[in-house]
Write a structure and sequence with these properties.
Helices cover 40% and strands 23% of the residues. The protein contains ten helices and 13 strands. Helix 7 links the parallel strand 9 and strand 10. Helix 2 packs antiparallel against helix 3 and helix 3 runs antiparallel to helix 4. The radius of gyration is 23 Å and the shape is globular.
């Protein structure tokens, strides 16, 4: 009898060892239009491809092993979504862009719902909303330092701040080992340096797209200039553009309004220009253009900057009512 019990226990342990760290991602599509496409599992931090599967019968399945957890992105036909890879079966309904079935993904969904509620709140507009969202990401980072949500939340926390190099060093001093080596954190460190180069009081830094259109075509031309770094997919960017539209008729004769479309595709940018009714110039280069934001140390958009007639930066990171106040003060 003891031998039988021992054999059964050994078998159970073997099963446990064989399933330790295994994950299965089941992606379900609403119809067959995605059949034949490839679903790519990529690292959120580096963008490296970690796995792939073909979509068949409106379904794609990716399997692997992961003893811990990490933030990933799933890409299909140019569209993407973020979720946590961890042990267990992860179910993704592609039309909802939401992963369920595991502890951390349920936690991530709840966090995203909170962020959406803050951004949609009528009582939390402009700078207030940015501050509240930043605080929520910082809290999420502190609550999830030991899992895959932590680095993701930490990066968003950095995006909502314009840290100096010294401040960033102080923040990283209390972060877990390895955070400093994250690709996105390294980018934030570089951004902190570029913020010094393009700080208030410094002359604007020029750049050009492949067609030869330059920022200097619109800035430093003897008129004030309001520069808006934005993207079509960015909800806060679209709300700020609506704000700029109310200011444009009043200031267009004295201020050059210029948009800089970054991190986007040409077709999406052009559609947004039409849908949003943007009538001022927009510099764009397609293909997820990052040069302008790299030069200005911008880690989060929208980012709105006011430049004087001689080309000196007088304000950065303007949001909501701050824009109108800055224009009124300048003029």
């Amino acid at each position: 009898m003891k031998q039988i019990l021992f054999t059964m226990m050994a078998a159970l342990l073997l099963i446990s060892c064989n399933t330790a760290g295994k994950y299965k991602i089941v992606v379900t599509f609403p119809d067959d239009t995605a059949n034949g496409q490839t679903a790519y599992l990529t690292s959120y931090d580096t963008g490296d491809t970690l796995g792939m599967a073909e979509v068949n019968n409106a379904c794609a399945i990716l399997e692997g092993e992961e003893d811990g957890s990490y933030m990933a992105r799933l890409l299909v036909d140019g569209k993407r979504m973020g979720f946590v890879v961890e042990k267990g079966e992860i179910a993704i309904l592609w039309q909802d862009r939401k992963a369920t079935g595991t502890l951390l993904n349920d936690r991530l969904n709840a966090l995203n719902d909170e962020i959406d509620a803050i951004e949609a709140s009528a009582d939390s507009t402009g700078a207030d909303a940015v501050q509240l969202v930043m605080e929520r990401f910082h809290k999420a980072y502190e609550e999830n330092m030991d899992n895959g949500i932590g680095p993701w939340a930490f990066n968003y926390y950095l995006m909502y701040n314009s840290f100096t190099e010294a401040q960033l060093d102080s923040v990283l001093a209390t972060a877990p080992d390895g955070y400093r080596d994250l690709k996105r954190v390294k980018k934030a460190i570089n951004a902190a340096h570029q913020l010094v180069v393009t700080a208030v009081g410094q002359p604007f830094t020029d750049f050009a797209n492949e067609a030869g259109e330059k920022l200097s075509d619109h800035v430093g031309k003897g008129k004030w200039a309001l520069v808006d770094f934005w993207a079509s997919w960015c909800g806060p960017c679209r709300r700020e553009i609506a704000n700029l539209k109310t200011l444009y008729p009043q200031y267009k004769d004295k201020v050059n309004f210029v948009g800089v479309a970054v991190w986007d595709k040409t077709a999406d940018t052009q559609k947004a220009i039409e849908d949003l009714g943007i009538t001022w110039p927009v510099i764009e280069n397609g293909q997820n253009w990052t040069e302008p934001t790299d030069l200005y140390g911008i880690s989060g958009i929208p980012h709105i900057m006011l430049v004087d007639p001689e080309g000196k930066i007088v304000a950065r990171g303007l949001h909501g009512d701050e824009i109108a106040e800055a224009l009124k003060k300048a003029l």
